[in-house]
Amino acid sequence: MKRFLVALALAAFALVDAAPAIAQTNVQNTCAPVWSATLTTTTNGSEFENRSYRGARFLLDVTAASGTSPSLTVKFQAYDSVTDKWIDVPGAAFTAKTAVSTDDLTIYPGIAATANEKVSDVLPFKWRPVATISGTTPSFTFKLGVCYAI
Predict the structure, then answer these.
(1) What CATH number does the domain containing 144 carry?
(2) DSSP secondary structure code for residue 142 in this structure
(3) Which end of the chain is more exposed for a tag (fewer CB within 10 A), N or C?
(4) Is the dihedral of CA 105, 109, 112, 115 positive or negative?
């Protein structure tokens, strides 16, 4: 037990020493897959809870697109527990995709907003992605990942 406590204390000191480097870049080494799918219709993604991050950088990688005039728009929604409804996070949507492509979107308070690239807002406590698909017999295969920022 004493060895465990000593190891835990040493790990805590290592984190304290690393904290300034993390704070300087605001990047947390917490990256994770959010969604991997082949979709043909508009679909809500899984719900996520954000317990400790101010923002995030999302990466959308479309690896296949087919159909006549296919279009995929991935946006983000926040859950409002008072009204029990999902609402769009203003401006938090990737540019519509019509072919294979890779793109990123950052949500972080205080950054200079750029349409479909950077959103000056906090990452909501409860959030989800939504894929809106249109066209004639559209199909998209994509992956969506996230790296959280403190």
Answers:
(1) 2.60.120.1110
(2) E
(3) N
(4) positive
